[in-house]
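Take a record.
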Amino acid sequence: MKKKVDLLLHPVRMRIVQALVEENMTAYGLIHKLKDVPQATMYRQLQTLLKEELIQVIEEKMVKGSVEKVYGAVKSAVNISREEFQAYSNEEHLRFFMTYHTHLLTEVQNYLSNENKTKDFGYGFTPFHLTEEEKKDFFARYKALMEEFSSKEPHEDRTKLTLATIFIPTTE
């Protein structure tokens, strides 16, 4: 079995899992949402994710004489624990970060290719100077805030925003 992070950082599988974390979908729904992913690739990557138990079949429906499967992410399986994360070597972390960065760059390119180039878009650097206790407090509050807002269901009144975070301790 491949390492979970290698499975998740594959560009197409990453997008499939992200879509299925948001909502359960059929293969057709995923193909419609991820328009640039060919149908054969979609089915192949769905099979890989199913085999590795990162997604599951939530429901099966009969549609025009065929079984249509509804997929969902196994949320406990697609998260990488702190222990798993810390077990990787520096070289692996660099490779993972480059993959993450490439994915993020693709998301930004897709956004900037549409008409509303500045609506809700921004990026920046914010240095913090924290004691160990302040750092623990910051991360606890940050985690609670992320959980509160990321648990909101899609709705016609809500705009989807993606927050990409990178915490880099500096050695000054």
User: Anything to note?
Assistant: The first helix runs from residue 4 to 8. Strands lie at 25-26, 55-63, 66-73. Helices lie at 4-8, 11-22, 27-33, 39-51, 75-78, 82-87, 90-112, 132-150.
